C-alpha cells in the first residue's frame, strides 16, 4: 500500500476545531460547550485529539524517514518527547500561577480548586517533585504526559503498523484490555494522578497511526460492505446521541474516560467512519478552505493547547457571576467568542513570528504537532 506523503488539510482542520473545542469545554460557565461533541456522544474531543495526534505523528515520521533516514526519524521523536515534556511543565506552571493569582485576588474560587494550587502551596517541594515525575498533573496539563510516552513509542509503532495493521492493532488491543491492571501495577490508577490512563489511550493513538499508514480505500467505502458500514455508523451515532440526550442525564463516572471504556471507543469509531466518508466526498476540504484560520490553529497545536489553558482560565474568571438569566447567557456567549478569537489570534501570531521556516517544516511534515 502506498504511503501518503502530503499534509492533510482535513486533519489540520479537524485538529484546529478540536483545539478550539478543548478551550471552550474548559470554560465551566460557557454556553457553546453545551453544543460540543460530549453533549451528543459518549466520547468527546479527547478521543479526536489523541487519534489525530497519532495520524499527524505517523505523517511526520514518514516525512523525516523519507528525507533523512531512520536514525533522524527516531531522533526527531525522542526530541519531540522532550519538547512535549517541557510544554507539560510550562502548562503546569501556568496553571499553578493562575491559581495563585486567583486566590490572592479572591477571584473564581472553583477555578482555584481546579488548578491544584491549594495542594501545591501546602507542600510545594513534594508537589513539585510529583509534577516533574508525572505523579500529579495540574488541571489541563494532564493530557500531555501520555503524549510524551506516545512520542517516544512512535519510531516503534509506525514501522509495525506499516508492516500490517493486525501486527500493530492486536498488541494495542491487548494493552487496552489490560489497561487497569497495568495502571494499578505502575500506581497510576488514581484519577487525581493520571486523568488519562496511557495504557488505555494508546489505542486511540494507534488507531490514528493506522488511519495514516493503512487507510481504508475509497473503493472499499464505495463497495456494498462499505455502504453497509456507513449505514451502521450513522445509526450508531444517532443511537448514542439519543442515549446521551435522553437517558444518561447525569455525568458519567470519571474512570470510564480515564480508562477509555468500550462504549467510548465504539462511539468514536462510528463518528470517525462518518467523518471519513465526508472527507472522501470532499465536504470537509471544502469547509476547511473556507476557514483557513482554523487550519492555522491545527498546524500550531502544542502552542494553542498551552495558550488555550490560560485563555480558558482568563475568560472563565472574567465572565460575570453576579448576573442571571438572559444577561448571564449573553455574557457567557461573549466570553466564548472572545476565547475563540484569542485562540485564532494566538495561532496566527505564532505562525507569523515563526515565519517561513515553520511553514516549510509543516509542509514537509517535520513538525509532529
Automatic annotation (TrEMBL):
Coiled coil, from the record: none
Keywords for this protein: Membrane, Transmembrane, Transmembrane helix
Residue intervals passing through the bilayer: 12-31, 37-64, 85-105, 144-161, 168-187, 199-216, 228-248, 260-279, 291-314, 326-347
InterPro entries noted in UniProt: UCP028704_OpgC
Protein name, UniProt field: OpgC protein
Organism expressing this protein natively: Paraburkholderia diazotrophica
Amino acid at each position: 500500500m502506498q504511503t501518503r506523503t502530503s499534509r492533510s488539510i482535513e486533519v489540520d482542520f479537524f485538529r484546529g476545531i478540536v483545539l478550539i473545542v478543548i478551550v471552550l469545554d474548559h470554560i465551566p460557565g460557557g454556553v457553546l460547550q453545551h453544543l460540543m461533541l460530549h453533549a451528543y456522544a459518549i466520547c468527546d474531543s479527547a478521543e479526536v485529539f489523541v487519534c489525530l495526534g497519532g495520524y499527524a505523528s505517523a505523517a511526520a515520521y514518514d516525512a523525516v524517514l523519507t528525507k533523512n533516514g531512520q536514525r533522524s526519524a527516531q531522533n526527531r521523536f525522542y526530541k519531540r518527547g522532550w519538547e512535549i515534556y517541557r510544554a507539560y511543565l510550562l502548562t503546569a506552571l501556568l496553571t499553578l500561577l493562575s491559581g495563585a493569582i486567583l486566590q490572592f485576588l479572591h477571584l473564581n474560587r472553583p477555578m482555584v480548586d481546579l488548578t491544584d494550587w491549594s495542594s501545591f502551596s501546602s507542600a510545594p517541594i513534594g508537589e513539585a517533585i510529583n509534577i516533574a515525575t508525572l505523579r500529579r498533573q495540574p488541571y489541563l496539563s494532564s493530557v500531555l504526559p501520555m503524549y510524551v510516552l506516545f512520542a517516544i513509542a512512535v519510531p516503534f509503532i509506525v514501522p509495525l503498523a506499516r508492516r500490517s495493521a493486525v501486527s500493530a492493532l492486536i498488541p494495542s488491543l491487548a494493552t487496552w484490555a489490560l489497561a487497569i491492571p497495568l495502571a494499578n501495577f505502575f500506581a497510576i490508577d488514581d484519577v487525581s494522578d493520571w486523568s488519562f490512563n496511557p495504557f488505555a489511550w494508546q489505542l486511540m493513538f494507534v488507531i490514528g497511526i493506522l488511519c495514516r499508514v493503512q487507510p481504508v480505500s475509497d473503493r472499499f467505502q464505495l463497495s456494498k460492505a462499505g455502504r453497509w458500514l456507513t449505514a451502521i455508523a450513522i445509526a450508531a451515532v444517532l443511537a448514542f446521541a439519543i442515549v446521551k440526550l435522553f437517558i444518561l442525564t447525569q455525568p458519567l463516572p470519571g474512570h470510564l474516560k480515564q480508562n477509555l471504556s468500550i462504549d467510548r471507543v465504539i462511539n468514536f469509531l462510528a463518528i470517525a467512519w462518518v467523518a471519513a466518508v465526508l472527507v472522501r466526498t470532499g465536504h470537509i476540504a471544502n469547509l476547511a478552505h473556507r476557514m483557513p484560520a482554523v487550519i492555522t490553529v491545527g498546524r500550531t497545536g502544542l502552542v494553542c493547547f498551552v495558550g488555550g489553558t490560560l485563555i480558558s482560565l482568563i475568560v472563565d474568571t472574567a465572565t460575570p457571576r453576579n448576573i442571571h438569566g438572559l444577561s448571564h447567557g449573553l455574557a457567557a456567549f461573549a466570553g466564548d467568542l472572545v476565547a475563540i478569537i484569542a485562540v485564532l489570534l494566538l495561532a496566527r501570531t505564532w505562525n507569523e513570528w515563526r515565519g517561513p521556516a515553520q511553514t516549510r517544516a509543516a509542509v514537509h511534515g517535520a513538525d509532529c504537532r
